[in-house]
Design a protein that fits this description.
Layout: H1 3-11, H2 30-42, E1 50-53, H3 59-66, E2 72-76, H4 79-91, E3 99-103, E4 113-118, H5 127-139, E5 140-148, H6 152-161, E6 164-176, E7 188-199
Helix pairs in contact: 1-2, 2-3
The structure holds S-adenosyl-L-homocysteine.
């Protein structure tokens, strides 16, 4: 599938019906998710298992499935989001043997995964965002994570302690829906960054 087709498909997925601000629910734009999945595929990061941590309506993990990953685990604590995720998977007719869905808190995740995709709660200074990063470093050797531009220093200590290094950083402009804007009812454009980090001793 061409990247533009993937991007369009992902953009058409159903998003959060009534985003819960307290959970920082925000759907990753299709073009961005397509880029992450293509890059990961090209680097051989999607040959085995993928975990979509805080999957929401599933755009990141579904991007992984659509570029050929056959072992995706979706983790999300909000049942309303999971119901939409299930609709999205069914509408694309993705065989259920390729994925697993767990409704739980990120704190309760265990096991090992080859690669992680995540768009965690944006405010990495809040406990919640850091818990995602901590869990990611604990359960995988290759992590693709989104944050606001320049967020790396906020996770650097965690990353260093887990012996991870940053291998890639890519900045994107995305539209932030008015619900998340601070002073305006209009859609705001912000910059986000996608980092790829790997465990130093893994390769
Ligand atoms: N990955 C999706 C959603 C990103 S928004 C996408 O890229 O489109 C962040 C998601 O994390 C939300 O769906 C929110 O419900 C979920 N979340 C927040 N805190 C969580 C926690 N402690 N455990 C599990 N999921 C959580």
């Amino acid at each position: 599938m061409r990247k533009s087709d993937l991007s369009r498909k992902l953009s058409q997925l159903e998003g959060f019906k009534d985003p819960k601000i307290s959970l920082e629910q925000y759907k990753t734009p299709g073009a961005l998710a397509a880029d992450i999945a293509y890059n990961a595929y090209m680097r051989g990061d999607l040959d085995n298992s993928l975990l979509d941590l805080g999957c929401g309506t599933g755009v990141l993990g579904i991007a992984g499935l659509l570029v050929g990953c056959e072992d995706v685990t979706f983790i999300e604590k909000d049942q309303d989001a999971v119901d939409i995720l299930k609709n999205n998977l069914e509408s694309l007719q993705i065989p259920s043997r390729f994925y697993d869905i767990k409704v739980c808190d990120v704190r309760d995740v265990s096991g090992r995964f080859d690669t992680i995709f995540m768009n965690p709660p944006f405010n990495v200074h809040s406990e919640e965002g850091l818990i995602f990063w901590e869990k990611a470093f604990e359960t995988s050797d290759v992590v693709y994570g989104l944050g606001s531009e320049g967020f790396y220093p906020a996770i650097k200590e965690l990353s260093d302690n887990a012996r991870f290094k940053r291998t890639d950083a890519e900045t994107y402009r995305v539209a932030l829906p008015p619900t998340y804007g601070f002073h305006t009812e209009l859609e705001e454009e912000i910059k986000v960054e996608v980092l790829r980090l790997i465990q130093k001793s893994s390769r």
